[in-house]
Amino acid sequence: MTEKVEYWVKIPFGPIHPGLEEPEKFILTLDGERIINVDVKLGYNLRGIQWIGLRRNYVQIMYLAERMCGICSFSHNHTYTRAVEEAAGIEVPERAEYIRVIVGELERIHSHLLNLGVLAHDIGYDTVLHLTWLAREKVMDTLEAVSGNRVNYSMVTIGGVRRDIDEKRKRIILDAMKYYREVLPQMEDFFLQDPTIEARFRDVAVINRRVAVEQGAVGPTGRGSGLKDDARWSERLGVYPDLGIKPVMPQDVTGERPHGDVFDRAAVRIGEIKQSIELIEHALDQMPDGKIKVFAKDNILVAKLRNLVDGEGIGRYEAPRGELVHYVRGKKGSDKPPRWKPREPTFPNLFAVAKGVIGDQLADFVVAVASIDPCLSCTDRVAVMEDRGRKRVLTERDLIKASIKKTREINPDIRGDPTPVGLGCSR
Amino acid sequence: MEEQGKLNVTEDVTEAFAQELLNEFPSASVEVRENKLGRKRVWIRVDRKEYKALMRHLRSLDPEAHYSIGIEQDMGDHLGFTSHLLLTWRGEALSVLVEVKAPKDDPRIDDISEIFPIALQFEREGMEMVGIDFEGAPDKRRLFLPEDFPEGIYPLRLDDKGVSEDMVKNAGHPYYLKGGSKR
Q1: N or C, fewer C-beta in 10 Å, chain A?
Q2: Which domain range does residue B100 map to?
Q3: Strand partners, B99
Q4: Which residues from chain A sit within 8 angstroms of residue B164, using beta carbons?
């Protein structure tokens, strides 16, 4: 009888890996194919947003917050705005609240469809990827028609919204909802009934209820593990209670008790798309007439906030990935907040899934990470490069120079002046 | 700040919670604030000696309490750490904020990761960003900052331990404002 010898291997997974959408590093300890431990290292996308925020005023931070992430840009902007409104004691007109609901739910539809596609892609089921992303185009076009942009909508401002939803836009949104009512049964079919999807998603990366509570899992990740919470519901946010908001639990969609696996997280997303369609239709129906913002111009807003904000404010909103929290502390007489901190839902979810994959196969790791819909947007665009043993930091200017040099190398005959044009860009 | 007399005026769950907490921790300052949407939040300010006991008490009120965010900040002569908790108490979801402060020359705060495990990650961020020392934290490695970032520099500090002007590489940027909120 021989003694069993175990070989544990540590491998880095990321920061740049074809299976990951964004730079994040996991150090996996493996026993053969089985995952023993996961260590998370963040900061590969650190752009110093909070540091930049110290140098911006309330209105400028609104746009900065929006650019943290392309997919949930509305959520960041909206939650930050809520925090400032709380600190300043501003009341938002009711029509603006309804418009916030409509844009927020449109964003949720596009974000969930994107994630469902990515999940399918990660298990090699690209037909489903193309189908979901094809369906996503409709909502992107709708958002463009409503706000003027496919991402970074800039719909929200402190004390209301920027653009109104008129009859024409209302019709466009209703058309899109009609389209989704037709397409959604198809999605339910391949995500909830397909044997391939069930084989790869069921009982993979199980985050049990205890781990979910300990690691503070939020959004579809938390609800997939059976935690009944939705920030829109528990916060009784804006007009959401009037629209009958309720957390979507996996049992509402699959009819089974929550397993806390990838399948349940996908099922919650399907249920939420359905809920969002209903919310949008109700909101369009109930939307009252009236003002859409408190302050007519941004310069008035900046001047007013200087005196209005005194103290702290918290904004909580259910972003597509889960509960998003922004904190703002203001000082009377200054238009710059001394502290602004956002907390993205991926932050706790990432640690929850790192615990959840322990004991799983390495091959399931990619889909496990994708199942929490990771979005690692955090803080100075800096690239560090090894230059003959010396480390060099590349700044924006260096990167532009390097790319011009490379373009000239590839095509020496290129014409035109590569100097950037624009007001004040004195590079 | 302490509205002990006022708390009994309207009997609702949030106010009752604040009153009970005040009975349990008389030295803490408990304040209920309401925003324009009618959402009430309980803001608790507690001494660092009682911080851990208070967090343990909150956890015992709701074993499934949700720790949402830990906010580290530079408040002039103090370093602050605020936690937001979502507690379900008497069937009501309460939004509770706990603030604890430590002087800059002795920035020690108790680690609460044995009560709320996710708090550890926010504490790691607090350690590298403003330089709070969380006593007894099981993991004191950096989370976001790169390994070669200089020791003793805390990016979100507003004093001379923060990022100095000569460390900023993008200084030619047209929107770069020197000094920030220190100005």
Answers
A1: N
A2: 6-182
A3: B45, B82
A4: none
Query: Is B50 inside any structural domain?
Result: yes
Q: Where are the alpha helices (DSSP H) in A189-256?
A: 195-201, 209-214, 219-224, 231-234, 250-254
Span A307-327, average pLDDT: 89
User: What's the pLDDT score for residue A269?
Assistant: 92
Nearest CB among B67, B158, B169 relative to A393 is that of B169
How far is B67 from B160, CA to CA, in rounded Å? 32
Residue A394 banded pLDDT, cuts 50, 70, 90:
low
Of B121, B148, B163, nearest to A51 by CB-CB distance is: B163
Q: Considering only CB atoms, which chain B residues are within 8 Å of A238?
A: 37
User: Which CATH number goes with the domain that contains B66?
Assistant: 3.30.460.80
Q: Is the model more confident about A387 or about A109?
A: A109
Q: Do B39 and A43 touch (CB under 8 A)?
A: no
> With a threshold of 0.90, does the pTM exceed it?
no
Query: How many A×B Cβ pairs under 8 Å?
Result: 131
Q: Which residue is closest to B43 within chain A, CA to CA? A: A312
- Which two tokens mark A65? 């917050």
**Which residue is closest to B145 within chain A, CA to CA?**
A43
Q: Cβ contact (<8 Å) for A380 and B66?
A: no
Instruction: List, in order of start, the domains of chain A with CATH numbers.
Output: 49-355 (1.10.645.10), 394-427 (no CATH)
Under 8 Å CB-to-CB from A189, ≥6 apart: which residues? none
CB atoms within 10 A of CB B88: 17
Contacts of B38 in chain A (CB under 8 A): 236
Looking at the 3D structure of chain B, how many domains does it have?
1
A19's CB contacts (< 8 A; 6+ apart) are A13, A122, A365, A366, A369
